[in-house]
């Protein structure tokens, strides 16, 4: 009775609460009265229309420009060099009018790594428009040569995107590398080999082609990603001592650097351009160097660095590691990969992954039996005991991970094969509840604990 | 990836050798002129670069330190791929470290042939009285495998400049010989890949509209 009276207090009818489309779900004022699903459909439609409009505009401009160019040639039949004076205004027009296509602010806004990686498939064309826009803006000051570069890159992207390039087995890395070679020779003559332009070319081309070229269907990259991910998860018990890592995480500054290194390594997956991915690896490595220097008070050598990197990779378990390495190897500007700092750190990352793949009892100074036991999960090395539970943050974090790891593992193995993005989400999700190190040690001694009844729930006594 | 545009050479040199033979001290001494310095400015000593000017030619040297622990030995090929030179360091007071160098030499020659310039370096000659690797043996071995042998002390800063200068000159000779064998203009094609031109706008742009059918 009471409740009915209260109901009358609202002026809303039941039907007003429903989705405007009448799909049967509840609507929400935030979504203009639609339910979440219908709202998404609506916005996608309008976005697609917007993109369609933009493309039509761009095509019209292109046609106009070509027509103007052709007519200027027909009038006078000048040799290409002298036609330059005529074409400059046209070029200018293209370069200045193109920005009028509404630059979407949401695509330009810096996104957090998480939202980026989860929205990968959702707004590719908005991103692509943004990439194109940026490239045009960059080349504008170069006038004619800049326009030529743009045309060349644009044609290449279109060719690849529509698979006009004849290659065996859809492996475009050779095409892309040849393209880089051509462009860099072109730049050498027209731009005096300015490295900036080459970087922007890479950014444009790979930004446009990322969806197609990253972890492509015809390779087994995805399978290998999962293999590595499982392998790293199975190695969750590997400790800093076993790897002889010269890093002392009890020092707050050092553990801070370690966390940063892990973050940067995970960030690797959220970047689209090989150069930016490489920059993530380099940033990660720099943090590692800081951590080592902070622990040892001496310059970090390779003897210190590689084990630490292995440790960081194990702790980070970066998503789609194999795909990322393959992508960088296939599509990075070769001069960057072969020499220079980025190349060195990337090589080390490859080494660390190779080491993790082949890692055995000997490489951790363990007996074969122990190694097998730990790998099968039947036993785990006696970790830091209760005495260290006082050192809250970093140890707590590690314990937490270890405790959460096996459970996550079984969930995923049964469920996964393919759902990379969901795996990503799961990995980045913080564990729902924390285990103290006490419970962890007790549990770990409890072999065959599966048959035990579920743990007691804490009960509240009032009064 | 030797000569990049005109007269600048870029070389990659890997440092190989067991842990504790002084690889890092060697390269720190060379690039920063420091040894066990309390006042550390360099964050790391694993990747260092040095710019040189040898007989009027610019040389960019990138020195790649490698992890010397036995368990990382199998990763060697990933490091020394595409390198122009290798510096193999052993400790003159440690016979074992010399054996390791021999292993490295075998591996490098097998994987990279004679393209790579090898330097065998006996470090820590300041500890001459504890020497366990004889000079004759080491130099004899180096000659037998086509490598050069050097004695250095990172602590006393002895022999290090000579080592790197010599190595650079040899790498330049190798690069020049390679260029010559490939004919003129090799510096450009040196990194060129099998070049099928894929993107060719010009062919379309250069073709006058309906040009093939127009008469006269």
From TrEMBL, chain A:
Residues 112-122 have a biased composition (Polar residues). GO terms for cellular component: cytosol; endocytic vesicle. Residues 397-411 have a biased composition (Basic and acidic residues). InterPro entries: DUF5601, VPS9, Vps9-like, VPS9_dom_sf, Znf_A20. Residues 13-47 form the A20-type domain. It comes from the Eukaryota. Residues 222-365 form the VPS9 domain. Residues 62-127, 377-414, 427-463 are annotated as: Disordered. This is RAB guanine nucleotide exchange factor (GEF) 1, like. It comes from Carassius auratus (Goldfish).
UniProtKB/TrEMBL annotation, chain B:
It is a lipid-anchor. GO terms for molecular function: GTP binding; GTPase activity. GO terms for cellular component: cleavage furrow; endoplasmic reticulum membrane. It is found in: Cleavage furrow; Endoplasmic reticulum membrane. InterPro entries: P-loop_NTPase, Rab21, Small_GTP-bd, Small_GTPase. One of its GO terms (biological process) is Rab protein signal transduction. SUPFAM superfamilies: P-loop containing nucleoside triphosphate hydrolases (SSF52540). It comes from the Eukaryota. Residues 176-200 are annotated as: Disordered. PROSITE patterns: RAB (PS51419), RAS (PS51421), RHO (PS51420). The keyword Nucleotide-binding applies. Pfam families: Ras. Belongs to the small GTPase superfamily. Rab family. This is Ras-related protein Rab-21. It comes from Carassius auratus.
């Amino acid at each position: 009775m009471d409740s009915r009276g209260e109901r009358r207090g609202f002026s809303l009818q039941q039907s007003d609460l429903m989705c405007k489309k009448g799909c049967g779900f509840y609507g929400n004022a935030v979504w203009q009265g639609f339910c979440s699903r219908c709202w998404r459909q609506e916005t996608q439609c309008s976005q697609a229309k917007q993109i369609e409009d933009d493309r039509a505009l761009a095509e019209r401009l292109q046609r106009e420009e070509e027509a103007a160019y052709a007519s200027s040639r027909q009038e006078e039949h000048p040799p290409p060099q002298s036609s330059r004076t005529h074409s400059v205004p046209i070029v200018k027009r293209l370069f200045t009018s193109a920005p009028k296509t509404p630059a979407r602010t949401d695509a330009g806004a810096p996104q957090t790594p998480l939202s980026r990686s989860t929205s990968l498939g959702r707004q590719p064309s908005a991103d692509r428009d943004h990439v194109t826009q940026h490239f045009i803006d960059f080349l504008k000051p170069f006038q004619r040569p800049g326009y030529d570069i743009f045309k060349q890159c644009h044609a290449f992207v279109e060719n690849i995107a529509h698979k006009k390039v004849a290659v065996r087995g859809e492996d475009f890395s050779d095409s892309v590398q040849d393209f880089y070679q051509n462009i860099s020779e072109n730049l050498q003559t027209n731009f005096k080999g300015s490295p900036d332009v080459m970087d922007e070319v890479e950014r444009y081309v790979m930004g446009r082609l990322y969806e197609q070229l990253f972890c492509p269907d015809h390779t087994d990259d995805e399978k290998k990603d999962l293999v590595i991910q499982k392998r790293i998860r199975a190695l969750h018990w590997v400790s800093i001592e076993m790897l002889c890592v010269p890093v002392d995480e009890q020092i707050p500054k050092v553990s801070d650097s370690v966390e940063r290194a892990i973050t940067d390594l995970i960030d690797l997956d959220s970047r689209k351009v090989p150069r930016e991915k490489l920059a993530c690896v380099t940033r990660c490595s720099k943090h590692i160097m800081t951590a080592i220097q902070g622990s040892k008070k001496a310059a970090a050598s390779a003897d210190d660095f590689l084990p630490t990197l292995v440790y960081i990779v194990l702790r980070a378990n970066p998503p789609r590691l194999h795909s990322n390495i393959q992508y960088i190897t296939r599509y990075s500007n070769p001069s960057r990969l072969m020499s220079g700092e980025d190349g060195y750190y990337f090589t080390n990352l490859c080494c660390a992954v190779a080491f993790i793949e082949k890692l055995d009892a000997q490489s951790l100074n363990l007996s074969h039996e122990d190694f097998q036991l730990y790998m099968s999960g039947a036993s785990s090395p006696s970790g830091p005991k209760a005495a260290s539970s006082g050192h809250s943050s970093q140890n707590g974090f590690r314990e937490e991970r270890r405790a959460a790891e096996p459970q996550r593992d079984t969930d995923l193995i049964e469920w996964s094969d393919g759902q990379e993005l969901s795996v990503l989400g799961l990995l980045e999700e913080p564990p729902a509840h924390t285990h103290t190190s006490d419970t962890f040690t007790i549990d770990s001694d409890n072999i065959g604990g599966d048959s035990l009844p579920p743990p007691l729930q804490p009960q509240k006594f009032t009064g | 990836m030797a000569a990049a545009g005109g007269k600048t050479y870029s070389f990659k040199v890997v440092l190989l050798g067991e842990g504790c033979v002084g690889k890092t001290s060697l390269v720190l001494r060379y690039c920063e002129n420091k040894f066990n310095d309390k006042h550390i400015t360099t964050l790391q000593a694993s990747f260092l670069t040095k710019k040189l000017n040898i007989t009027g030619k610019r040389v960019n040297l990138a020195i790649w330190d490698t992890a010397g622990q036995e368990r990382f030995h199998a990763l060697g090929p990933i490091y020394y791929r595409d390198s122009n030179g290798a510096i193999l360091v052993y400790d003159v007071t440690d016979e074992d470290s010399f054996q390791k160098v021999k292993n490295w030499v075998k591996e490098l020659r097998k994987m990279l042939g004679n393209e790579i310039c090898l330097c065998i370096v006996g470090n820590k000659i300041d500890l001459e009285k504890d020497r366990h690797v004889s000079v004759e043996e080491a130099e004899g071995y180096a000659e037998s495998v086509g490598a050069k042998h050097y004695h250095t002390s990172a602590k006393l800063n002895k022999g290090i400049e000579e080592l790197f200068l010599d190595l650079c000159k040899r790498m330049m000779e190798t690069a020049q010989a390679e260029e010559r064998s490939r004919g003129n203009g090799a510096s450009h094609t040196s990194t060129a890949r099998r070049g099928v031109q894929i993107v060719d706008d010009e062919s379309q742009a250069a073709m006058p509209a309906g040009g093939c059918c127009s008469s006269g």
